[in-house]
Design brief:
The structure is a single chain. By secondary structure, the protein is mainly alpha-helical. It contains seven helices and no strands. The radius of gyration is 16 Å and the shape is elongated.
Amino acid sequence: MVDRDDLVPAYAEWIDRVTATYEAVSYTCRVRLGDPAVAEGVAVHVAGGLVARPGVFRYWGLPYSGRIAKLAEAGIEDALAGRARRGSFGALRDDLTDLPPALQTVFVLCCVEGVDDDELAAACACDVPDAAQRRATVLRHMSELAVRHVGDPTEGE
């Protein structure tokens, strides 16, 4: 696991946002479901679902909250039906912090700031095809990471 001080600052802020979302969902689900372990599973699934489709991090308010609610309600429904989800947020967070710094920057620019490939190329001092490849690489990495930790978090959508 990488120390927080070794992360690109904007990426560290993003990790904090994911962590805060996980903690809020875990608490809310613990109250609704009455089982901390099941609530944690739902919250990990929500965090994984957000990571799997990271474009949502460009938004605040209703678009972001709506995505969280959709994922959480699916997890709660599964839990109530006896299909509790499992997972470890610590392991997911550790893998998120292991992203190489160059990809941390690409991730923030693409998924948090919403830049296009021309802007990404300018920020990374590369050509547009290379920028598009960097974007594709970071999106594929995040999707694979989410699947590794929570299965297909978008299943059933």
